[in-house]
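Posting for a labmate who doesn't have an account.
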Amino acid sequence: MSGHSKWSNIKNKKEKTDSQRGKIFTKIGRELSLAVRSGGPDPQVNSKLADAIAKAKANNMPNDTISRSIKKAAGEGDNAIYAEIVYEGYGPGGVAVILEIVTDNRNRIAGEVRHIFDKSGGSMGANGCVSWMFDVRGVLIVEKDKSVDEDALMMSALEAGAEDVIDSGEVYEIHTLPEQFSPVRTALETAGYAFLEAQIDRLPQNTVAVSEEHSKKISWMLEQFDDNDDVTNVYHNAEIDE
């Protein structure tokens, strides 16, 4: 077991946003909607939808809420047309930032993102300016408890096509190539494993140490992005002293 760990970031994010569950569900609902409209409402034949459902369940989204989102996207009352956008830029101290957006108003979100970058002391950049600093990987987080046998989990994950399994202290992290994410997730679900996180992520190849002053500005910037309903995922390479 080896590799880059992202559990501390996930843990901090979950602790910070537990009181904002409705906002999280709104964001995931948009991802479900996009998945349905791109491949239909049946997760058995729509792997993108199956992955979105797994992400929703990992975030404790109720099954009836998931079902309503799928039915709404399938034509039962949702007239909004969402688009997926990726913005890149630099935060305070030159840290790399990537935002994944799901929006029904490109002009509005572009202005909001640029404003947050500028106000924090960063700058919005061109597509591709920082994405090369990140590796796109599927990430599955399994909590350590008495029911999880480490050797069995590792064997099941690697046999299903996982790239790496990391012992992060409180959890196990399973990393996959993007194209192997769905089959590995399905295999582990079938084997009875539950996930604290299940999604395609962007993992920084290297992290950047930042000063206390920049750390405060970066934290403010990340909070503003997290609070925006259109921003579904935020990635960065800063080492922030919590």
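Reply:
Got it, the structure tokens are right above this. The two ends are 26 Å apart (CA to CA).
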